[in-house]
Write a structure and sequence with these properties.
This protein is α/β, with parallel strands linked by helices. The chain is 45% helix and 15% strand.
């Protein structure tokens, strides 16, 4: 059972509400009660993150069917379970046709109620393990230890409403992680609205973020909701958050604290129910020291931090990423490009990828279009990769420990030395072993280790 899920229960009889409270709280759900449909709508517009609505059919004023119609229009993905009285089977079936997940006839058992609720919640609660696949997690490719830790973190933080800050160099895949957090959350049936804080001119930022009323400024011929309003019920993803002007950080801080916004030129405040996920490629200490980020704003958005390591620190993911990109291109264009030549694979594995996954994808796409079937060869590479690199570029000495640097040099020496010797003796293992002064078993082990052909 997942705790902290809020269920909105609506019934005009206080005794029924008390019964629902006892049953559902025992099952570790949080219960919000309303005596009328009108009260329920006010609750939904507030700060609560309702995961399911349980509503009685017959009520004074707006009844269950009318409320269902309103919710299907304004909260189309919110699961709705209708409770009907004895002898109203036809109305229950009609409710399901109109968008209710299920209906329960009174009197009902506790087990029937809980089973119906659990089934409805499965619509919005993904089964975490199913998202792991042969190449990584959902659309994120990687099987290295750092990436597996990130996948675990995504699964842990997704269910809550805490704000998330994703850090990492440009091109590592911060937006993919943000979308994965949203997709695995209880908000996944609501929109994720991305904002690139570095791409919006400062003078347009506030109107884009908070919207405006008709006549608020020259050219405002009609009211327009802002991106925050459009994200209501879902996730607001703010990329390059350090580029946001300080005066807007103050206004956004107020929204984060009070969950209310006011359009430009507007008088009334509007409640918003969003989760905020931010991303930056800046060094956070430097961003605070230089004043790019206000401290109070930083502490509000940095409830949970996910750091994505650069590609050079997870080199074992490079072959997986290359395969993933090539397979995607083959599905689209069917050029019969099956892979890389060993020489190209070596170059790509040894390169330090300052542009990270985005640069690797660009190189794979470029070489795919230029290559002749069946494989990508060295002449297809861009000029900066198609030449002998100095050792400091090949191995990125500044970022490697002494042991790692030594191991990388030794591996490259073993591969190159053995390839030359095998070619010299026409792949005769006995002669190669004798000339190298090592035994045949070691030769076979190294051939297998480096997949020499």
């Amino acid at each position: 059972m997942m705790d902290n899920l809020e269920i909105l229960v609506i019934d005009d009889e206080q005794e029924m509400l008390v019964s629902y409270q006892k049953i559902l709280k025992r099952a570790e759900y949080q219960v919000i009660s309303a005596l009328s449909a009108e009260d329920a709508l006010k609750i939904l517009q507030g700060d609560h993150k309702i995961s399911l609505v349980l509503c009685d059919l017959k009520m004074p004023g707006m009844d269950g069917m009318e409320l269902l119609a309103v919710l299907k229009q304004n909260y189309p993905h919110l699961p709705f379970v209708m409770v009907t009285g004895f002898g109203t089977l036809e109305i229950g079936i009609e409710a399901v046709k109109n968008g209710a997940f299920d209906f329960i006839e009174k009197p009902f058992s506790q087990q029937k109620l809980l089973t119906s609720i659990e089934s409805a919640l499965k619509q919005i609660a993904p089964a975490g393990e199913s998202h792991l696949n042969s190449h990584g997690f959902e659309n994120i490719v990687g099987q290295s230890e750092p990436m597996m830790k990130i996948f675990e973190m995504i699964k842990k933080v997704s269910y809550g409403n805490a704000n998330v800050l994703i850090t990492g160099e440009s091109g590592v895949g911060k937006e993919l992680v943000a979308r994965s957090v949203h997709k695995n959350s209880l908000r996944r049936n609501h929109p994720i609205i991305p904002i690139n804080c570095g791409a919006l001119p400062e003078q347009l930022f506030e109107s884009e973020l908070f919207g405006y009323e008709k006549g608020a400024f020259t050219g405002a011929f009609q009211s327009k909701p802002g991106l925050v309003e459009l994200a209501n019920g879902g996730t607001l993803f703010m990329d390059e958050i350090c580029e946001m002007p300080q005066n807007l950080q103050v206004k956004l801080l107020r929204m984060l604290e009070e969950r209310k916004i006011r359009r430009i030129g507007g008088q009334k405040e509007t409640s918003v129910n969003i989760r905020v996920v931010c991303a930056t490629n800046r060094n956070l200490d430097q961003a605070l020291h230089q004043g790019w980020l206000r401290e109070d704003f930083f502490y509000r958005i940095n409830t949970i931090q996910i750091h994505i390591p650069p590609l050079r620190e997870r080199g074992t993911d490079i072959p997986l990423l290359i395969q993933h990109f090539l397979e995607g291109l083959e599905r689209k264009y069917d050029r019969k490009i099956k892979g890389l030549s060993p020489e190209v694979q070596k170059i790509l594995l040894n390169y330090h990828w300052p542009g990270n996954v985005r640069e690797l994808q660009n190189v794979v796409e470029r070489t795919y279009y230029l290559a002749s079937p069946p494989s990508i060869t060295k002449p297809d590479l861009p000029s900066y990769l198609n030449k002998d690199q100095p050792l400091e570029l090949q191995f990125d000495w500044e970022r490697l420990s002494f042991k790692d640097a030594k191991d990388r040099v030794l591996e490259n020496f073993e591969k190159d030395y053995l390839r030359i010797q095998l070619k010299k003796f026409d792949w005769n293992i006995s002669k190669t072993a004798e000339a190298c002064g090592i035994d045949r078993r070691t030769i076979h082990r190294l051939i297998s280790k480096y997949q020499l052909k």
